[in-house]
Amino acid sequence: MKQRHPFRRTLTLHQVDHEVARDDNDLKLFALSFTAFFVCFYTFVA
Fold first, then answer.
1. DSSP classification of residue 34
2. Per the UniProt record, which residue ranges are transmembrane (predicted)?
3. Model pTM?
4. Is the CA virtual torsion 28, 34, 35, 40 positive or negative?
5. CA–CA dist 43, 9 (Å, integer)
6. Rounded distance, CA 42 to CA 32, Å?
7. Closest alpha carbon to 26 in 16, 36, 37, 34
């Protein structure tokens, strides 16, 4: 079994899985923000 940080060992599996899902939401927010910026910039240039 691989060694884990003592704090992470105190977390339940559900809390660790939730952390992974939150990272996915950050990626979606970045993609949405980048797309919105690109559309606005393209609209001003064109």
1. H
2. 27-45
3. 0.47
4. positive
5. 50
6. 15
7. 34
Q: Cβ distance 36 to 29 under 8 Å? A: no
3-state SS assignment for residue 3: coil
**Which has more pLDDT, 17 or 40?**
40
Q: What is the pLDDT of residue 19?
A: 57
Q: Is the CA virtual torsion 34, 39, 45, 46 positive or negative?
A: positive
- Residue among 17, 26, 22, 21 at smallest CA distance from 8: 17
Rounded average pLDDT over 13-29:
70
Q: Which DSSP category does 2 fall into?
A: -
Residue 40: the pLDDT is 95
